[in-house]
Amino acid sequence: MSSHAPDSPRSSQSPPPEGAQGDLELELLGLANALYNLGTTVINDSTKDRDKQGGAKQVGPRANDVVRHLTTIDDMAQSIPTKIPFQVLSDIDNARSPMQLTKERLERAATENQFMNGKIAAIDSYRKLLNEALAISFPETAEYLRPRQDVIKMET
Predict the structure, then answer these.
(1) How many CB atoms lie within 10 A of CB 44?
(2) What CA–CA distances, in Å, run from 29 to 2, 78, 113, 141?
(3) pLDDT tens across 23-51, in order?
(4) How many CA atoms lie within 13 A of 18 on its CB side?
(5) Which residues of 132-149 are buried (b: 16+ CB within 10 A; e: fewer)?
(6) Quick check: 53 pLDDT over 70?
(7) To pair with 19 at 20 to 30 A between CA atoms, which of 35, 51, 57, 117?
(8) Angle between the 86-93 and 98-137 helix axes, to the nearest 10 degrees?
């Protein structure tokens, strides 16, 4: 049974890509691990050995580890040309799934596409009716109002 993260397009057991993107992915994984370690250390330090004097606290080194990962990621970001729209980052910060957002945006684009196709069909129908009425009312303009066959072939 392979482990597959539901929000990831690839298996969590597959190797990272080569190059800067792979290095960045590994560093992000290290940051996630360092944040987890910091969180568990904070919980442990705050719940046990509260009253003991002289106990060595591990929060400082764990926090430094997180800062080190963040610094490395910031340095790596300077060499990666990928731009991420601010709205995507904002949605992730607001706990909205990128996969769900992509689905919603694709559905919205399809809906707007259908709406525009309806408008185009309505305008085309109106144009045909108007041309017919103008040709009847002004017979001398009929040859200019009827669509030419080569234009019709290009439209279809």
Answers:
(1) 13
(2) 19, 19, 39, 72
(3) 888 898 999 999 999 998 888 877 665 55
(4) 0
(5) eeebeeeeeeeeebeeee
(6) no
(7) 35
(8) 130
